[in-house]
Model the fold of this input.
Amino acid sequence: MDNVVKEGRSEADDRFETARVTAAVDALAEKHAGREDTFRSALAQLLKAEMIAARATAQAILLKDRNGRRCAERLCFMQDEIIRILYDAATRHLYRSHVPSGEERMAVVATGGYGRGLMAPESDIDLLFILPYKQTAWGEQVAEAILYCLWDMGLKVGHATRSVDESIRQARGDMTIRTAVLETRFLTGDKPLYDELVARFDKEVVQGTAAEFVTAKLAEREERHRRGGQSRYLVEPNVKDGKGGLRDLHTLFWIAKYVYRVRETNELVERGVFDAQEYRTFRRCADFLWSVRCNLHFFAGRAEERLSFDMQREIAVRLGYTSHPGLQDVERFMKHYFLVAKDVGDLTAILCAKLEDENAKPAPVLSRMVAKLRPGTNRRRVPGSDDFIIDHNRINLAAPDVFKHDPVNLIRIFRLAQKNDLAFHPDAMRMVTRSLKLINTQLRENPEANRLFMEILTSANAETVLRRMNETGVLGRFIRAFGRIVSMMQFNMYHHYTVDEHLIRCVGWLQEIERGGNDEFTLASDLFRKIRPEHRAVIYITTLLHDIAKGQPEDHSVAGAKVARRLCPRLGFSAADSELISWLIEEHLTMSTVAQSRDLSDRKTIENFAAVVQSVEQMKLLTILTTADIRGVGPGVWNGWKAQLLRTLYYETEPVLTGGFSEVNRAQRIAVAQSEFRASLTEWPEQELSAYIGRHYPAYWLKVDLQRKIRQAHFIRASEQAGHKLAVNVGFDEARGVTELTILATDHPWLLSIIAGACASAGANIVDAQIYTTTDGRAIDTIAISREYDRDEDEGRRATRIGEMIEQVLEGKLRLPEVVARRAAKGNGKMRAFVVEPEVTINNQWSDRYTVIEVSGLDRPGLLYELTTAISKLNLNIASAHVATFGERARDVFYVTDLLGAQINAPTRQAAIKSALLHLLSQEAKVAQPAA
Done:
């Protein structure tokens, strides 16, 4: 077999001692001559031991030099050598062909990711065995010997055995196979066979199909992003498949290889696709992502691609990040990650523009809806400016020096694109990025530039345009405080996006609120129509700036208000409006906190909130801001319950601010709620309906949304007709990813504690709770728990288990502490990644009748059970509880009295309560014992 070569082997290479291992294999072959099975087994054991040692060395070097690309190359080289040794062993020791025929030829080829010559520690191996014609007994035996040994080594191997003809035929018909063949790399065996495949693939598959391939690959990319969450700023990104991850770089290179027929990335510079600086960015992004991915695989011990919270801190330490004032090490690492993801997006845009110029891809517009209405690809002047042209439906520069001769054009280009619904030409965006140094104090103070910016912020498609301004670096240079929060992540489970992405999304939701028609935002949309016209710009700039001071040692609300006081006059706001914007930023969390964690039927709560908001106009603005802020946190965070709480707080506070006059007074709102309820249950007899309405206190009618009231009425009626003392109803809220348990039971001082304990013992984490009692001594509690199973049937069974447990405890058949202790011992691995400083606040200023205890700390299974048990042990009665979680942080508020119904006034008693609860929060899931 004269044509057989051993490609790329270096006997003296320090990455893998091929000569020594080959000699050991020959020794094993001699030792086990005639015993094929024992030789195969010994061979697999030897190579597995060598592989483990080589991987350990690779990890040690990675931890030292932090060079992920070098690690991936090293691991790939090791794998190459192992496969060459296996092929050698199979063809020399197991299936030696003494008189090789023309059919007894084979090329072993790396494909897919492995074909790129870079390999993560736990990546799959993809192999193609190329045969000259059809499969032969010899070819089958050699391929099987290699594969079985690799499997015995514990490796995941994807494989195919095909002739050259078959490979070409399948590549024509299947885009996945076509991409795999595009990435092939010869390993060992018959080189001419491989060369024939490459030559025929270029000629018979690639030629004339570039547009088809590009369209398929970009569609594949869009679908991948859609599945993974469209934003590249998700705080638990997928390093391989997420937006801005390695797969996006791979897609770039696949397209480049296919269209420009290059073999190496540096050839893209010669073809004029990237300039030298952009190519350096391409390499830098790939190097960084490979460092992250290799460390992730080594740390997880599996092919883990998602940079989850419990992984992020360890990877940050491995890569050498340290903490700075206001920013943890992990937050600095993730900021770097998101900046790299942004660069990957920029490189994608550059390549797509190049392809569009060559008609390999259709041209875009800012808004997809108008795409089909657009005429052809002629170039014409943009209306309102001689400095810009429309090029393939995208805004481009009329001359290279338009920014230099008028730096205001760096803002104007975005406003003109927005006004004329144009997409951005990547050449123009390249020029913008290269001209950032022109954004200096003079431009920042320029009245025209600031006027244009406010027009952008308050006009249609503001979210899209602001995102482009941010991605090019203009937004962070024009508003320098914004530049400091670009790509900043907050190391918590509550926020789904980086700070800059959150702010830009909030502006998008604000526009949705202003448009109206979305039932999610009925109150906010109604209030938007009623605010003073001059306050429209106020609410827009407040929404963009409300988290601008995140990452500083000072409280971000206070620091953000200071930023606004300095910035807003420059943007054209009066002193009064600048002060209003600062106030809104300083108080932007207040309404959400009061609505979710205070008793809204307590007069003192409402009076205190009214004292903060001061006027109806300020409360309207704060309600709109709060709605946009919660909605912009991420999917499932905003819900009907929170909307109802904000509505209740707004309408309870309005009469206090207007001296008794309310657009919708309390009695009237209760009457309206009851009237809507009656209209929805016309099939009930009037007497039964009136009796049912009389069973609920006013707070129930004000705080619970209509659909929930109707569901609960049917549930209570059915349960009582069936004679059930205790009943549990299960519902699923897909948007929030929670399961809701509605529990009907006789009211009992320990009921909340028992429900919490039953949830904890089933491993169910409570994310919020709505607790109401009826006038006839029944309790109707709705508990939302995190989902554990994908299928509703499985979740339903778990909920039924919880209901049975509550019944057994109430009947004295089950003692909760032991059950909860067993479950709590399992803990929650994800939560361990976080540190939340425990806080306990006790005061009598929030209520005239009750002492209010606010508890905040790291959430964990069974925490609510422990807290309620501890409070009862302290001889306190819980009148109402307000339970909420914000990611990993639990914030629970209890309205309590002593056993005689009085507030807790003695400082020593308050100190004892605080000490006991802080001790509980500080313990690692230690389960409290119940009171007797």
About this structure: The CA atoms of residues 232 and 243 lie 5 Å apart. The mean pLDDT is 86. The radius of gyration is 33 Å. The longest strand covers residues 876-886.
